[in-house]
Every structure is written in structure tokens, then in C-alpha cells.
Design brief:
alpha/beta; Rossmann fold; 2 domains; eight-stranded parallel β-sheet; 18 helices; elongated; disordered N terminus; binds NADP nicotinamide-adenine-dinucleotide phosphate; binds flavin mononucleotide; Flavoprotein-like_sf; oxidoreductase activity, acting on the CH-OH group of donors, NAD or NADP as acceptor; NADP_OxRdtase_dom; AKR
Length: 482
């Protein structure tokens, strides 16, 4: 569904700028099935979703291990090291000496034992399998691994590391040991392969991070770019410079670390000043800004100008504010800025299903985040699952309905009743509802008490019934035109 008219949007924005003296722009608890396998490392919080991808690797000298760790980090997946029951010594590995490794590779039937099995492999749909090349093939311990489990209905993506050999027949030979698996074409990597290359490869193979990688213990979500972003923060739309500065200081004092601004909010400089003067390490703070439609024709410059206005060395997340003319080229400029280290993550704002279907095939880096209007009266229940299934994090703007609508929403009977039951405020209930749906939030406020309240979302939890009651409030009632 198309909901955006750029010309109308630009006209309205101009009008609002004039009116405001050109001041400002107008999940659920998931438990990872426990494994008592000591070699599977997994996140231990109770609110993340069950993991779907497992990176499995064998590494004798550390090369495959490093790349496997990159993959697991990017995918937010669990990782399992194939540890030989009898470790390989340096002597064992010395090749062309007829040592242990040489002998195993010559013997098609050799099956070195693995020290600990994976106890709950059923939960994983996709296995990324890494191994070194030994005499043109995978080490025989990979055969042991593949013959130990039933891989039907699972996808296996192999990769190898080597001095110089390609993956050759090693992966097809391995496939014959797990012929009921969906076997993807494998790839060889050199020892100096970067994390970025691993990410590009996983993207190209359509292996997405486990969705909704929400960590309710750390209050962060892992974006598909590999960076962590706080789940909740502060929106700065309509905040004047002083309000913006003071609100950010209040946010940071109360432990908030996520700030949302935009070129169109005319307050990037105040955001940057507050961040710089906060005495909090830059890497602890997450700053989002946006390019506006009028900047798309010269986006590379606009990115540099944003960095200058913010006075920061890098931008954590930059979004295109609206779909519109030149958006693909502008996105490509952001992709280049990621490569240049100017931006960590990139994404979109006000893109819906139809716009995404047209846009995504034209770009290389999958957006890390999509920011759209979301509140109990406008829930986007069509868009949210679509976006999350692409491994993209969702963020809601106007969580309280936006100025002019907040009192109706905050006094809604369903919400006030739920708030009273938890001894929290209606604002907190709405924000928590978002988080439990896997939607990150950036409520706007210039009131330090509200800012503090809006960060305090982790002492209570909405029941499934309460979530359902709020879900039932949807009226498809959009409070802005884009
Ligand atoms: N990408 C886009 O196109 C787009 C569009 C719109 C907005 N946004 C982003 O989304 C952010 C949020 O939207 P918004 O600020 O316009 O609207 P909003 O968050 O829905 O509502 C802000 C209003 O809620 C009030 N409020 C905040 N916390 C409250 C609390 N705990 N109790 C009672 N009232 C509370 C604020 O008043 P006080 O100041 O008194 O707290 C303010 O009037 C924006 O700031 C902006 O960063 C993005
Ligand atoms: C027994 C043995 C045989 C090897 N055979 C090859 C080979 O045929 N081709 C190649 O390019 N590298 C070969 N190598 C080098 C490894 O594939 C390469 O160093 C790999 O990246 C090591 O990965 P790891 O550190 O994860 O164990 C061999 C290494 C060993 C120990």
C-alpha cells in the first residue's frame, strides 16, 4: 500500500516550517531451548527468540574459528565448535609427514571422535558449517559431524578456509553425507577475510540474522549490521535547540543512550553538542539521523554535512526520511559511507510493504531498521511481520499518537486499566507493548520526568491477554500523512 506523497509531504513540511518560524519539523518472551552442551555458546536472556541458526566449525589453528565467530556475531546466532575427543598436536597437523592428519585424510573411512554432541540440534533450521581444507578436502571430523545428526529439512551453508585451495569437491563430498539437507553452494575464504566480507556473503546467500534479536537484560537489540542499538530512547522532533540539548542531557543522566534526530528537525547540532558534552564515551551512545528528500540529489555531501553539524566522527544509524525521487541513489551514497566508516548502519523511514518490494532489489546492504508510525490506534500489523521476517528491526514513531493525539491515547480505558494493574503509567504500558512486539521506541519529550519514566520499562511485563487487549485497539488511524 502506498501511503506517501512526496510533493504533499514537502508542501506540508514547508508550511509547518513557516508556521513554526522554521524551527523544527513539524515479543513476547522467548526462551532459547536450553542445551547442556558446553561447547554451544548462546545468549542467556529469557526474552530473546529461540535461535534458528547455528554456526558450526572445526578449526585446528584458529583461522576458521575467527570467521565463524564473525558469522555468529552477524547472525546473532549460537555457535558450536567441533572439538576433537583427541586434540590435534602440532605434530599431528604437520602435513606431508604422514602424521595423524595426513593419515586421516588418506582414509576415506576415518571418523575422528567429537568430544561433545549438540543435544538440541532440532531447534536449528540453518547450519553455517566452517572447516579448513586438508589435502583438498574437509577434515574427516566434519564427516563424523555430518553422520551424527539428521539434517532433513535443514539448510547447510558450508565454507572453508585454506592457504590457497578452493572449496573444490570438499563441499559436494560432504553433501553426500547429509543428502537430505538443503545444501547451499559453499565458498572458500582466505585467512585475512574481513567481517564485512563475511556479512556480504551471508547477505548474498540470504542467511538473515535471527529476527527480533531483543536482549531484555541489556535493553538492546542487535541490528542486522551487527551493531547493538538500545531498544528505547528519545525522539527529538519539534524540540528547539535548548529543549533538545536539555532533554538529551536528561536522557543520558537517566541511563538512556538512543537519540533520534533528522536533518529536518534542525537540531542535529544540539544533539551532537549534548553527546560531546555528556562525558559519556561516544561508543556508548547511539545517534540516529535522517536525510531529507531535498538532500537525495547530493546525498554524499549531505552525509558529510550531517557529520559536521553533529560534530561526531561517525553516525550510528542514518535513515532516508521518506521514499521519493533519487532515494535509491541516496541509499547507495549511504552504502558507500558505511564502507568509508562514516556511518555504522543504514535504514529507511516511512517505507511500507509495497515500497520495500520495489526498493530492496535495487540496493546491496539490507536496511538495518525501518522507522514508521506505530501506536495502538495505528499498529501496522501488515508491515511489522514483513519487515521482521527480512531480519530488519522495526522502530515506531508517534508511540503516543503524536502531539495533539497523546491525551486520547494516554487516557484510553484499556490502557489505563492495564497501567493501574501494573502500577505503572499508560505511557509505560504503550512503550512496553511495543517492545514486546519487537518494536523499538523513540518517544519524544522535553520533560525530564517523562524522559525518566519512558526509560523505566523493565520492572513489569504485559501478559498475553493484555497484549491482545491492546492489539484489539487498532483502528488503522494514521496521525500523519506519510
Ligand atoms: N521518521 C519520521 O517520519 C518521524 C515522524 C514523526 C516522528 N518521528 C520521531 O519519533 C519521535 C516520537 O514522535 P513524537 O515526539 O512526535 O510524538 P510522541 O512520542 O507520540 O509524543 C510526544 C508527546 O508525548 C508527550 N509525552 C512523552 N512522554 C510522556 C509521558 N511519559 N507521559 C505523558 N506524555 C508524554 C510529550 O510531552 P512532554 O514533552 O511534555 O513529555 C509530547 O507532547 C519524534 O520525536 C521523532 O524523533 C519520526
Ligand atoms: C593437514 C593439513 C592439510 C592442509 N592442506 C591444505 C590444502 O590442501 N590446501 C590449502 O590451501 N591449505 C591446506 N592446509 C592449510 C589450511 O587449510 C589453512 O591453513 C586453514 O586456513 C587452517 O584453518 P584453521 O586455522 O581453522 O585450522 C592444510 C593444513 C593442514 C593442517
Amino acid at each position: 500500500m502506498k501511503r506517501h506523497n512526496p510533493l504533499a509531504a514537502m508542501f506540508m513540511i514547508s508550511l509547518l516550517c513557516i508556521l513554526s518560524a522554521c524551527g523544527n519539523e513539524l515479543k513476547q518472551n522467548h526462551t532459547i531451548a536450553a542445551t547442556d552442551n558446553p561447547t554451544v555458546k548462546e545468549s542467556n536472556n529469557e526474552d530473546t527468540v529461540e535461535k534458528k541458526t547455528l554456526v558450526v566449525y572445526f578449526s585446528a589453528t584458529g583461522t576458521t574459528k575467527t570467521l565463524s565467530e564473525h558469522a555468529a556475531d552477524i547472525l546473532n546466532s549460537d555457535i558450536y565448535e567441533i572439538v576433537p575427543a583427541i586434540p590435534y598436536t602440532e605434530e599431528d597437523l604437520a602435513y606431508y609427514t604422514d602424521g595423524r592428519a595426513d593419515q586421516e585424510q588418506q582414509d576415506n573411512e576415518a571418523r575422528p571422535a567429537i568430544s561433545e554432541p549438540i543435544k538440541n540440534i532440532e531447534q536449528y533450521e540453518t547450519i553455517v558449517l566452517g572447516y579448513p581444507i586438508w589435502h583438498g578436502q574437509a577434515p574427516r571430523i566434519i564427516s563424523t559431524f555430518l553422520e551424527s545428526y539428521d539434517f532433513s529439512n535443514k539448510t547447510i551453508l558450508p565454507f572453508c578456509t585454506s592457504q590457497s585451495s578452493g572449496i573444490g569437491t570438499s563441499d559436494t563430498n560432504l553433501h553426500s553425507l547429509a543428502d537430505n539437507a538443503k545444501w547451499l553452494e559453499g565458498r572458500r575464504f582466505a585467512a585475512d577475510t574481513t567481517r564485512e566480507t563475511i556479512k556480504e556473503w551471508l547477505d548474498s546467500m540470504a542467511i538473515k540474522p535471527d529476527k527480533n534479536a531483543f536482549d531484555f537484560d541489556k535493553h538492546v537489540v542487535k541490528l542486522n549490521s551487527g551493531y547493538e542499538m538500545p531498544m528505547m530512547g528519545l525522539g527529538t522532533y519539534s524540540l528547539s535547540d535548548d529543549e533538545c540539548y536539555n532533554s538529551i542531557i536528561a536522557l543520558l543522566k537517566n541511563g538512556g543512550r538512543l537519540i533520534d534526530t533528522a536533518y529536518m528537525y534542525h537540531n542535529e547540532a544540539s544533539v551532537g553538542r549534548a553527546v560531546r558534552e555528556s562525558n559519556i564515551a561516544r561508543e556508548e551512545i547511539f545517534v540516529t539521523t535522517k536525510l531529507y528528500l531535498t538532500q537525495y540529489s547530493d546525498a554524499a555531501n549531505a552525509i558529510d554535512e550531517a557529520l559536521e553539524r553533529l560534530g561526531l566522527d561517525y553516525i550510528d544509524l542514518m535513515l532516508l526520511h521518506h521514499p521519493g525521487e533519487g532515494d535509491v541513489e541516496a541509499y547507495k551514497a549511504m552504502e558507500q559511507a558505511v564502507k568509508d566508516g562514516k556511518i555504522h548502519s543504514i535504514g529507511l523511514s516511512n517505507w511500507y510493504v509495497e515500497e520495500l518490494e520495489a526498493f530492496l532489489p535495487q540496493i546491496s546492504i539490507t536496511p538495518a531498521l525501518i522507522q514508521n508510525e506505530i501506536h495502538p490506534y495505528y499498529q501496522e500489523n501488515d508491515v511489522i511481520p514483513y519487515v521482521q521476517n527480512l531480519g530488519i528491526t522495526m522502530q515506531g514513531w508517534y508511540p503516543f499518537g503524536g502531539r495533539g493525539h497523546t491525551s486520547e491515547l494516554l487516557s484510553d480505558k484499556t490502557i489505563t486499566t492495564i497501567a493501574a494493574a501494573h502500577n505503572v503509567t499508560p505511557a509505560q504500558v504503550i512503550l512496553r507493548w511495543n517492545l514486546q512486539k519487537g518494536v523499538t521506541v523513540i518517544p519524544g519529550s522535553s520533560n525530564p520526568n517523562h524522559i525518566q519514566e519512558n526509560l523505566d520499562l523493565f520492572t513489569f511485563e504485559l501478559s498475553q491477554d493484555e497484549m491482545a487487549q491492546i492489539n484489539a485497539l487498532d483502528r488503522n488511524e494514521k496521525h500523519d500523512w506519510y
